[in-house]
Amino acid sequence: MSMNRPISSWQGRRVWLVGASSGIGAACAQLLAQQGARVAVSARRAEALAQLGLPDGSLMLPMDALRAEQWQQSLGRVVAAWGGIDLVLICHADYQPTRAWELQREVAQRMVDINLGSVYTGLATVLPQLLAQQCGGIGMIASVAGYFGMPNALTYAPMKAALINLAENLYLDLAPRGLGVYLICPGFVDTRLTRSNPFSMPALQTPAQAAQAILHGLQCGKFEIHFPKRFTWLMQLLRLLPFSWRSYLLQRRVNHA
Ligand SMILES: NC(=O)c1ccc[n+]([C@@H]2O[C@H](COP(=O)([O-])OP(=O)(O)OC[C@H]3O[C@@H](n4cnc5c(N)ncnc54)[C@H](OP(=O)(O)O)[C@@H]3O)[C@@H](O)[C@H]2O)c1
Fold first, then answer.
1. Which residues line ligand 1 (CB under 6 A)?
2. Domain holding 123: CATH number?
3. Are 191 and 23 in contact (CB under 8 A)?
4. Where are the alpha helices (DSSP H) in 35-67?
5. What's the rounded Cα separation, in Å, for the pair 92 and 105?
6. Which end of the chain is more exposed for a tag (fewer CB within 10 A), N or C?
7. pLDDT 10s digits, 79-106
8. 20 CA distance to ligand 1 middle (Å)
9. What residues of the chain score a pLDDT lower than 50?
10. 139 part of a folded domain
11. Closest Cα to atom 36, ligand 1: which residue?
């Protein structure tokens, strides 16, 4: 079902991607540019942004998502250059596999700050602009890791669960005002983020495959864009099970990994 207005063409669309120096965000930026969108890219590593090979006229906006004033400056540059914005894609995150006995306060705080706190900072920056325009949309990359509790994700998955809830909240408020809200829940994608995973990742995709699935979902106007379906349907089925059953299945998988 289309919960957002479908996007018939990317030609000329003004898209700002935060967390686009590598992985899924970078692949989305490259694919969007190939399809004619005007693309602005942000992340901390300016040199990696410059190496994306984006066409002339693209905006390179290096910034640290933890810094509110840098969000504001980057938005100011997008609006000054293009007069407005059609889509903001929040892609940035950090991840460290963590079991309960490995928990460190500083690492947990960093995960909360970057994976959730900075998303609120971004929303507080861009929502006034989108609301004033009365058009445009916002997408956030959460994860199937946010569907339910799972091993190795003690500090990461709860933040992704919060983003899923946050996206639903946003949709309820913003859809009646004509704004698009997109929740993106990938399965495993082969990026810098997942390379330290100490387990084999089922249905692993490339960033290019992930970008294809994301753009397709956006164009169809989906609210939740999840992929690859052969994995994410299974995760959605597991989510429906009572925790007693799910925990038994997850423990078995961990013990046999
Ligand atoms: N890979 C997967 O299997 C998978 C699965 C589900 C969901 N996801 C989600 O997909 C999104 C993209 O991750 P990825 O897998 O593509 O990993 P990635 O290649 O590590 O991309 C993460 C991006 O976030 C940026 N970033 C990190 N901290 C930042 C900060 N403080 N300020 C600004 N930018 C920052 C990084 O750039 P700089 O280091 O240059 O700042 C990088 O561009 C994340 O939200 C992740 O949680 C990934």
1. 19-25, 43-45, 48, 64-66, 91-94, 114, 141, 143, 186, 188-189, 191-194
2. 3.40.50.720
3. yes
4. 46-50
5. 21
6. N
7. 999 999 999 999 999 999 999 999 999 9
8. 8
9. none
10. yes
11. 19
What's the pLDDT at 205? 97
How many independent structural domains does the chain possess?
1
Candidates 216, 61, 51; CA nearest to 125 is 61
Angstrom distance (rounded) from CA 162 to CA 147? 10
Q: How far is the CA of 245 from the centre of ligand 1 (A)?
A: 32
What is the Å distance from ligand 1's center to 208 Cα? 15
- For residue 66, the enclosing domain spans 14-256
Tens digit of each residue's pLDDT (9 = 90 or more) over 204-237: 999 999 999 999 999 999 999 999 999 999 999 9
Q: Which amino acid is at 96?
A: Q
Query: Is 77 in contact with 83 (CB distance < 8 Å)?
Result: no
Measured in angstroms, how far is the CA atom of residue 193 from the centroid of ligand 1?
A: 7
pLDDT of residue 200: 86
Q: According to the model, what pLDDT value does residue 107 have?
A: 94
Q: Residue count of the chain, please give it.
A: 257
Q: Is residue 9 part of a domain?
A: no
Nearest CA to ligand 1 atom 34: 43
Residue nearest to atom 41 of ligand 1 (CA): 44
Atom index in ligand 1 nearest the CA of residue 118 equals: 31
CA 147/CA 254 separation, integer angstroms: 17
Q: Which of 63, 89, 92, 121 to mutate to test the pocket of ligand 1 (most atoms within 8 A of CB)?
A: 92
User: In the prediction, which pLDDT does 251 show?
Assistant: 87
